[in-house]
Amino acid sequence: MTREKIQVILVTDGDRVAQKAVETIGQELGLRCISASGGNPTPISGEEIVKLLSQVPYGPVLVMFDDRGRRDKYKGEQALEYVANHPSVEVIGAVAVASNTKGCQGVEADACIARDGQVIAAPVDKMGDREDGRTTAQPAIVQGDTVDVLNDVEVPVIIGVGDIGKMDKQDDVHKGAPITKRAIIEILERSGISYGRRE
Known about the structure:
The chain contains four helices and nine strands. By secondary structure, it is of the alpha/beta class. The protein has one domain (6-190). The strands form two sheets. It has a seven-stranded mixed sheet with strand order 2-3-1-4-9-6-7, sandwiched between helices. A two-stranded antiparallel sheet has the order 5-8.
């Protein structure tokens, strides 16, 4: 009997603060999280992540990727590309995290979550603030060190946020990382996927 594809949400941040936030959100929403994918940069390969995903009993699974500020395709983006293209994986969405890295192509998000918790049709910066001078008529291009690779893989829903677990303490893990949590819920709802604690 062949196993169904495992549903995955890609998260383009993985430092210590982001990892704690993503793990906490996973627990609250009843989602699995590949904690070993957390790190700055991503400490394990795409092959290792897929191996870990094969042991997860159900999805969706939160998986973190981080290029540690590098604008080229580094460890995080290399691992993300491998995981997203693997035949056993179904990517249902990605949280595209803005950073101050210059010279990135950026990726168009379906929506962004500002640090006040509002779902907006404009891009946000690392602080989670709406980028100045952008109108809703323009695409919401999120700039970040680990987001460019999202242009090269199939991702049905992309939601942009500022720096996970930070955003001037608005996304603090002690508050439940509400901005990132809203982004993940947005992906689940737009994908028609139910979530919640499972026994």
